Amino acid sequence: MNELPEQINEFGEKRRKGFVTIKNLKDEGKKVVGVFCAFTPKEVIAAAGAIPIGICGTSEEPIQDAEKHLPRNLCPLIKSSYGFAITNKCPYTYFSDLIVGETTCDGKKKMYEMLGKIKSVHVMQLPQTTKGEDSYKLWKNEIIKLKEKVEKEFNVEITEENLKDAIKLKNIERETLKEFYELGKMMPPPILGMDILKVLRGAAFSYDKEEEIKTIRNMTKNIKEAYKKGENKVLSSAKRILVTGCPLGESTDKIINTIEQNGGVVVCFENCGGVKDIGFLVDETIDPIDALTSKYLNIACSCMTPNDNRIELLSQLIDEYKVDGVVDVILQACHTYNVETYRIKEFVTKEKNIPYLSIETDYSQTDIGQLKTRIGAFVEMI
What we know:
Layout: H1 4-12, H2 14-27, E1 32-35, H3 42-47, E2 51-54, H4 63-66, H5 76-87, H6 91-95, E3 98-102, H7 106-115, E4 121-124, H8 133-154, H9 160-181, H10 193-203, H11 209-228, E5 239-245, H12 253-260, E6 264-270, H13 275-278, H14 288-297, H15 308-320, E7 325-331, H16 335-351, E8 356-361, H17 368-381
Parallel strand pairs: 1-2, 1-3, 3-4, 5-6, 5-7, 7-8
Helix pairs in contact: 1-10, 5-7, 8-14, 9-11, 12-17
């Protein structure tokens, strides 16, 4: 697997190295749509010939600037995202012709109001629950509104055929990424969880999707072949950890690294950008708008109440990945995920009978010492 670390690291660098690429695409006349959340149906954007790109802030760097306008006791993801926008330090936000937000939390909703003063922003209004016909109708109407907004903004027509083609390609990408991250099911896994995360993260900043799919398929094949020959970087004694909770970014890599430096290996990510989103396909046999509505409405996010989908997904993943322990990552001031920790702990420890650890953190690196102590003790006790 000599060449694999280099390939994996290349994916890990795609966000940083993609700045020039996105500028070149803009110069060629391509439209760019910044998105914040797994709820945003990227297929609608792609069907318009535009490029959907993630603009969630994942760094502490611009937070001090954001706090000139936003309260300090706010989620670091929100502050980082807004800080990058007002300082023009994030090229992806800067180059976005349109930004699509969604009402997953009150902090984001109010931040979008402020962001709308400097960028063109469209906000999708999420229902409060995944259950019932009213929720379905509301979300379907929001997807139609997004389609109409993109068409008007970019002076294009999104046909049913465009949507079907975009859905098909996105499904192939999901299946390819699923095959890759399911390497974590192997006993022991052939690569670290940090390696899996780098590829999942980098895929979101790959603009040639067909090339991305080809590269990841080859990578998965090569890893499996090397594994059969006895090449593996994970000890069989490593404790198998599932990470759940809030979205993960570069600033929260401190948690994954600490787990894997203390006798654990992260085999599964049940976060935004992980199984929660990638693990489910869009139905290609029905009307594309209905198919997108069903897929995106049922994401197991804590903004929904009740969030039974998350319990069902966690139960399935714990069994399939033969998980030894669960680490629940909560970003400071993310109230919905924080409130859910009680239910998740009860489920994991009493129904699945495995250890659980909740970690509340922010984007600073000042808690690394505490993390080493807590995570080290957690892994050791398993």
